[in-house]
């Protein structure tokens, strides 16, 4: 993922996958998905470590947080 537009397209693909295969999603509700996302973000250093990788140091956490908050009211 190398751009803001790549991220937007990735999110659209996730949405499409949810609409087509929600029965295969462990966290198909918004409530479950957001809780799982929070848990994964907390555990991310371990996830990367288990893969033998380092967690990206330059993550744009504030941008992602703003996008999540803005989507509450954005049409």
- Give the amount of beta strand, in percent: under 5%
SS field, number of helical segments: 3
According to DSSP, the number of beta strands is 0
- Average predicted confidence as pLDDT: 91
Largest sheet: none
Query: Secondary-structure element order, as H and E?
Result: HHH
Distance between the termini: 25 Å
Structural class: mainly alpha
What shape does the CA trace take? globular
Percent helix, as a range, is 55-70%
Low-confidence stretches: none
Radius of gyration based on Cα positions: 14 Å
Which secondary structure elements does this structure contain, and how are they paired or packed?
Layout: H1 4-21, H2 30-50, H3 61-70
Task: Give a concise summary.
It contains 3 helices and no strands.
What does this structure look like?
65% of the residues lie in helices and 0% in strands. The chain is mainly α and 75 residues long. It is globular. The longest helix is centred in the middle third of the chain and has 21 residues, at 30-50. The chain contains three helices and no strands. The mean pLDDT is 91.
Q: Characteristics of this structure?
A:
0% strand; single chain; 75 residues
């Amino acid at each position: 993922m190398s751009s803001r537009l790549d991220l937007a397209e990735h999110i659209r693909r996730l949405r499409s996958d949810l609409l087509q295969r929600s029965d295969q999603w462990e966290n198909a509700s918004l409530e479950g998905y957001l809780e799982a996302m929070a848990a994964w973000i907390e555990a991310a250093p371990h996830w990367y470590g288990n893969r033998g990788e380092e967690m990206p140091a330059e993550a744009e956490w504030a941008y992602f947080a703003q996008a999540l908050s803005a989507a509450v009211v954005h049409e």
